[in-house]
């Protein structure tokens, strides 16, 4: 059976948090379901052990330990206060595998992770959002499963629903609280693939080469647009090579190009 993303996250970085919860966890003698992931207790990482809580007023819930890890205060590992919970880290991402444990955080979140008593990540990188993907794609292990999250966010049930473990660089699952999409590692166009091409000819918000390609996911290119793309690729052969890297699926292609744009903007 495929391991759930939330159980993988708990195993790789949440072990200490789960162990702390075990001290107060309830034990179910029958089959129950987690109100966060909706799985039955025999499917949980720690079968039949759960936390009874009220995350919202007048709304009692039962959580498996993996899911409750997102709700649990963990000041030793995540710092004090409201944001000292794995499920209250808006703008924070991570790449997690048996050998790689990197957290992506900026500003106060970066300060938070840099000052914790018992870190659960091995490295802090000062990037956030889609901009982290360039660094993360370079770090992806080739011989072990991994979890790539661009935004842990605050919507815990949505994050759990979107988490999925990746098993190959040929199909990387990019997860966040708001979405999940897949692409191969070699389908992402990085800034170094466009070395020598003026940024205004790649993206300028209107008629850069990749602006036109993004627009083509919603409507057919007219003759003028098609000729513009042809002109760009003749002038800059690396643009043609970059276009060949892109996913065939138009929506995945658009997502990939939006990531490229964020990476190029981050280099300003």
Description:
Helices cover 36% and strands 15% of the residues. The mean pLDDT is 91. It is elongated and about 70 Å long. The strands form 2 sheets. A 6-stranded mixed β-sheet has the order 6-5-4-7-8-9, sandwiched between helices. A 3-stranded antiparallel β-sheet has the order 1-2-3. It starts with a helix and ends with a helix. Helix 7 (156-162) links the parallel strand 7 and strand 8. The chain folds into 3 domains: 5-68, no CATH class; 88-186, no CATH class; 191-266, no CATH class. With 268 residues, the protein is α+β, with helices and mostly antiparallel strands. It has 12 helices and 9 strands.
Task: Give the integer mean of the pLDDT values.
Answer: 91
Structural class comes to: alpha+beta
Number of strands: 9
Can you count the helices? 12
Cα Rg: 21 Å
Q: What is the domain tally?
A: 3
The first-to-last residue Cα distance is 45 Å
In terms of DSSP E residues, the strand content is 15-25%
Which sequence of strands runs across the widest sheet? 6-5-4-7-8-9
Poorly predicted segments:
none
Shape: elongated
Q: Tell me roughly what share of residues is in helical segments.
A: 25-40%
Would you list the SSEs in sequence order as H and E? HHEEEHHEEHEHEHEEHHHHH
